[in-house]
Amino acid sequence: MAQTRQIRIGDLLKEYGYLDEEQLDRALEYQKINNVRLGQAVIDLGYVSEYEVLLALSHKLGLQMVEVSSLHVDVAALQKIPRALAEKTCALAIGEADGALDVVINDPVDLYATEELQNAAQMPLHLLIGKRDEIMTAISHYYSEVNARQAVNKLDEESATLFPEIEGVNAVEIGDDTTPVVNLLNSLMMRSYSSGASDLHIEPFESKSKIRMRVDGALIDYSDLPKNVHSAVLVRLKIISNLDIAEKRLPQDGHFRISISGVDLNVRLSVIPTIYGEKAVLRFLSTNVPIDHAGHFGMIDEDYEKFLKILSNPNGIIYITGPTGSGKTTTMYMAIERFRQRQINISSIEDPVERNLEDVNQVQVNNMAGLTFEAGLRSLMRQDPDIIMVGETRDAQTASISVSAAITGHLVISTLHTNDALASIVRLEDMGVPPYLVGNSVVGLVAQRLVRKVCPYCTETYNADEIDLITLGYPQGTVAPLKRGTGCNSCNNTGYKGRIAIHEIVAVDKRMQRMIAEEATMSSLYEYARKVQGLTTLRERARDLVISGVTSMEEFLKIGESVD
Predict the structure, then answer these.
(1) Which residues of 97-117 are buried (b: 16+ CB within 10 A; e: fewer)?
(2) SS3 for 370?
(3) 519 CB contacts (<8 Å, ≥6 apart)?
(4) What is the C-alpha to C-alpha distance for residues 190 and 140, in angstroms, rounded to an integer?
(5) Rounded to the nearest 5°, which phi and psi values hold at 263?
(6) Residue-range domains of the chain with CATH
(7) Which DSSP symbol is given to 533?
């Protein structure tokens, strides 16, 4: 602690050549005006990066600089520092060793912060240095974990007295924001959000209820609930989703909005009866998961340029295809955000509205009131739209109306569930749309998948075996180094951390339109797309990621062959 008193961050940055005297004077002036610490001032002014500041402090103080996401955090040590103080000082307790508390802090020269932390912990501190954003993200993640587990434990202890006759629980009491059930659900949703989960599963079984979260496409076991609490949790979910709490025999779907860490989220709820009770799945329709190539719709440059050309069409239909959870809707929203920059009328029909978009007239499907995709789309046609977004083309009526809109001068963008891009043609024809109308209306097809990335913290390199060589198209005897994850705390022992999108893009030009209208075979369409348009398939994109070490053979084998 004594050493940190002698450090003047301005002099230190000058010593390491990061600042000159003039820049230091400007930073000091900025500091006074904006009431920030000098280290933050030089970062705000762009004189140095946060990494350079932390590196200089690390060298001067002899403190280790760490990557927070790769650390194992001991929950017992974490709780020695209250969350409010952790957020105030941007510090995270991660463990204990040799009678001292290991703490990652962003500003180790803040004497007042370190003294507050030491007083709260009632033990000496061993400081490490980490980036601010990483520390704050970890604080949100791990304290949410603690809150969720405490809520589960409290329910477990008190369930016998709180819910002695679970079938007779009063809905108004459960809806009270002070009840343990509400605290449990809030903590679970915060934990899911901080983990980047797309779904939260609450599953009833004979003796318990299981909580699982889908992170990077994989279901991760999280916790168990007492069996007699399950019904109360379901009642609470139904109340906030405006569902029928008395109906337990039929599936129900609803949605609600929540705010987590200042971010507004839509949550879609699906409830279905099982032999042990009702299972609930909550899908978070907007998360804090980072996107590779975010400025290019998650696409590499080559695919981005192709997609921009498709989006420049004044009319026609653009379909974004793929299975559930492949990121289709996110890509569609990104395209609409780009259209929004123009002075045009954009309308959408969605179920549900996953994200509120400025200057876009969004219509929520309400089947109970008679507002179906078909009815809503017909009405939108009379609203003088330039661009229509259809959340999903689910049936023949929606497909037919979309085609009518496309051939009468509108640009329609929608999603389909197909395995590859050109399979959309077959899907539309199966829905009853005549081939000549498909050919005259469709202008672009984008197939998309999300591929899990090998965890950078537990990756290992190995040489491909004979089967891998054949699968990847290498000659026998080739030495091909590949990567895979062995599993660690950072990736929940899955070997994967994060996902990356791959795309297969087909622009339907005049020649292809004629081929579709003339009912050409799928192999003919693929041959034309590959030879004339230079189509790269999803499997080829995945192969490139395997060879470059981004993903594994396991993920590559999930991508099926295209029909060619």
Answers:
(1) eeeebbbbbbbbbbeebbebb
(2) coil
(3) 435
(4) 8
(5) -105, 125
(6) 2-128 (3.30.300.160), 137-284 (3.30.450.90), 294-450+500-544 (3.40.50.300)
(7) S
* Other C-beta atoms lying within 10 Å of the C-beta of residue 250: 9
Q: Give the number of C-alpha atoms closer than 13 A to the C-alpha of residue 13, restricted to the C-beta side.
A: 26
Rounded-to-integer distance, Cα 363 and Cα 252, Å: 21
Q: Kind and range of the H or E element at 111?
A: helix 111-121
The model's pLDDT over 454-474, given as tens digits with 9 standing for 90+, comes to 998 889 999 999 999 999 998
**Are β-strands 252-260 and 387-390 bridged in parallel, bridged antiparallel, or unpaired?**
unpaired
Place of tokens 């200057």: 359
Look up the pTM and report it: 0.70
Phi, psi of 407, rounded to the nearest 5 degrees: -85, 0
**What spatial distance separates the first Cα and last Cα of the chain, rounded to whole Å?**
68
Least confident of 96-110, 146-160, 233-247, 519-533: 146-160
How many CB atoms are closer than 10 A to CB 314?
A: 9
Sheet harboring 496-507: ordered strands across? 360-364, 346-350, 387-390, 411-416, 316-321, 442-454, 496-507
Grouping H, G, I as helix, E, B as strand and the rest as coil, residue 1 is coil
E-state strands within 55-165: 91-97, 100-105, 125-129
- In the block, tokens 């602690």 appear at 1
